[in-house]
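Hello, quick one for you while I still have it in my head. A protein chain has come my way and I'm curious about its shape. Can you walk me through what the tokens say about the fold? No rush at all, and the record is pasted right below.
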Amino acid sequence: MIFHIDVNSAFLSWEAVYRLQNGAELDLREIPSAVGGDQSKRRGVILAKSIPAKQFGVRTGEPIVDALRKCPSLTIVPAHHGMYEAYSSQFLNLLREYTPDVEKYSIDEAFMDMTGMESLIGDPIAFAHKLKNRISRELGFTVNIGISSNKLLAKMASDFKKPDRVHTLFPEEIKDKMWPLPVSDLIFVGKSTEHTLKKLGIYTIGELARTDPAILRCHLKKHGEAIWRFANGEDSQVVEPIPEDNKGYGNSTTIAFDVTDEGTAKMVLLSLCETVGARLRRDGMKGEIISVSIKNFELNTVSHQTVLHAPTNITSELHAQACRLFDELWDGSPIRLLGVRMSRVSREESGRQLSLFDKTDYEKLEKVDQAVDKIRKKYGQNAIMRASFLKPPIENGTDGHPNKKSNRKV
């Protein structure tokens, strides 16, 4: 008995709840509104939209300029990801009151394994209604809950009619509830896969389910067989309360202006390396492969990677390697986006190969990074920063709601 709980228009709902809790009279969910990136910084896409905005044809992921063309009265508010993490934690903690088997699927989605809980919760469908009502009453936002015998079908069920609904999709209901849906509604069927399927004359999930899997393997290889199983409701994944270790850590940023000089680009790389290094240290991980990606003003992307002499999470070491890759990669074209990623990560403490010519005190650098992490965790991202970020054009990275920022300098 698997539940999939999905917060309705999560970012927009959380923005609305925060404002209402802090004295606002207008509920963003009741007007055409959206959470969007900063157009001035060229991150102008719709991240979440209200139901009234959806009625105007506003879509998640589309440019803000297109959304405003459809709905000139659209109210757009900026995103505050730190605040969203806080609401997500409240949401997950409430779910864990009923079962320890809660898997965070994303910031606004979770699975619950309720198998064998009928003696405690009674009828699962009636309980799901009580659960969603409690979330709405205590946390202020609504959810959809999908119920089935596996994770795939539970997730498909939660995507049925929204908001604030409970849906079931048990195996015996697949033919009536899932097969008539367009094939694009099936999980893991993206635009490219949808295009291939339509060329084969497959337009619905039911048509996919009835297709010879050998044909799908021929055109889509292993992915074709996987989506055929999904179309038939087959899924063997279990709810995993303890998340797997990340396979990589990365960060990228679209820059507010075209970067044309090496110094500014390397400042951006430093900001990205600080974030990536902090995430690695937070999880007790070190990475062995670092890559840098560059997107130019014509939206062409190139990347380059190298294997380090020893796994590391030291910010200065990451930045030095990122700058070396940048020097090898950049052709002088104006830069729109920069990215840094660490892969081949592990918790294992690999010995560092010492060199007679390397006088670097790596232990000291690790302690400095750890001290900075502790200060920022306690007082906020701006509590301590590098002097190079005190002046424009590159600012120290911040997160969270504007009213919760720390401006304290050390």
Residues 31 and 156 are 28 Å apart (CA to CA).
